[in-house]
């Protein structure tokens, strides 16, 4: 008799990495519909994971509150549940140790770090690996929401464009003055612009953009939505302009055309995706792609608002 396999899928964070991992979870369940897939995730991203139709159950680790004590407790819970398969989507020492101690007999990992921590380093028997994520048009399910602020209504014939204005590091952000210039270009075409993001820095940026651009076409959503409501809103947009940040990955996973702005980080698998479904702009600095996130030079300043707006206009007729 064939019994379903109980699978523990491990990806705690961050937003962009959770979105990428969602593609793998989808493909695993697609090939093995009888698997029961449980996702172990940080509490901040749990609501995203719960909405995915290929996820059967969610285990939550509140890392911010419980820290290492929570790591040991979640490890005890995993051992009690007697999973058959572990899929570790991290490449860290901590998850390698988790894999070694979890008591799960079959353990898939992305990269070998410690001897005996994982038993497999290829996912070929778990999923179809011939279709890379860059060629998959959509791999994120947008949750339903009753929050009116997570919906957008624009006049017929008008475009609704999301502007993800922030990033985790200042050097990865397009300067405020460039966003203002872009907003002024967009106003001449009657495009509606929704400012997206969260956090104190981004709230301040949004207020500056709204004040300087002084346009009735700008709708400020920064700091006003949960992450799941933001995903629901992006699902209703026509296009997203973003630096290298989590919301860019959300838009890609929802199949939205993306105009991506890159400086210290080169687009990785995003590059092929954007060649197919969007546009990418990389700063002109000779050290672009240096990954120096504390660099004092704001290299994204090199990317002009005019060229980004031209990219948007090129994409919109195809929507």
UniProtKB/TrEMBL annotation:
GO terms for biological process: lipopolysaccharide core region biosynthetic process. The keyword Glycosyltransferase applies. This is Lipopolysaccharide heptosyltransferase. Pfam families: Glyco_transf_9 (PF01075). CDD domains: GT9_LPS_heptosyltransferase. One of its GO terms (molecular function) is ADP-heptose-lipopolysaccharide heptosyltransferase activity. SUPFAM superfamilies: UDP-Glycosyltransferase/glycogen phosphorylase. GO terms for cellular component: cytosol. Gene3D superfamilies: Glycogen Phosphorylase B. Keywords: Glycosyltransferase, Transferase.
């Amino acid at each position: 008799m064939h019994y379903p396999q109980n699978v523990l899928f491990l990806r705690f964070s961050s937003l962009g990495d959770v979105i990428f991992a969602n593609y793998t979870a989808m493909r695993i369940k697609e090939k093995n519909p009888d698997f029961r897939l449980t996702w172990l995730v940080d509490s901040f991203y749990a609501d995203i994971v719960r909405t995915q139709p290929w996820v059967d159950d969610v285990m939550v680790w509140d890392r911010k509150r419980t820290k290492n004590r929570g790591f040991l407790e979640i490890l005890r819970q995993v051992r009690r549940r007697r999973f058959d398969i572990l899929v570790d989507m991290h490449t860290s020492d901590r998850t390698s140790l988790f894999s070694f101690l979890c008591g799960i007999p079959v353990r898939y990992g992305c990269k070998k770090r410690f001897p005996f921590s994982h038993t497999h380093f290829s996912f070929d028997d778990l999923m179809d690996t011939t279709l890379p994520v860059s060629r998959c048009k959509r791999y994120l399910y947008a949750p339903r929401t009753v929050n009116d602020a997570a919906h957008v209504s624009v006049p017929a014939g008008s475009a609704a464009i999301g502007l993800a204005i922030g990033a985790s590091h200042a050097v990865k952000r397009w300067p405020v003055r460039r966003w203002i210039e872009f907003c002024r270009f967009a106003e001449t075409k009657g495009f509606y612009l929704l400012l997206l993001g969260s956090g104190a820095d981004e709230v301040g940026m949004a207020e500056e953009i709204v004040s300087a651009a002084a346009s009735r076409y700008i709708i400020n959503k920064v700091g006003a939505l949960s992450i799941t409501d933001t995903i629901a809103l992006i699902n209703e947009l026509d296009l997203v302009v973003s630096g290298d940040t989590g919301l860019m990955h959300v838009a890609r996973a929802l199949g939205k055309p993306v105009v991506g702005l890159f400086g210290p980080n080169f687009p990785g698998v995003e590059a092929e995706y954007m060649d197919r479904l969007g546009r990418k702009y990389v700063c002109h600095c000779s050290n672009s792609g240096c990954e120096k996130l504390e660099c004092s030079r704001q290299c994204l300043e090199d990317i002009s608002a005019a060229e980004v707006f031209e990219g948007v206009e090129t994409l919109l007729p195809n929507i």
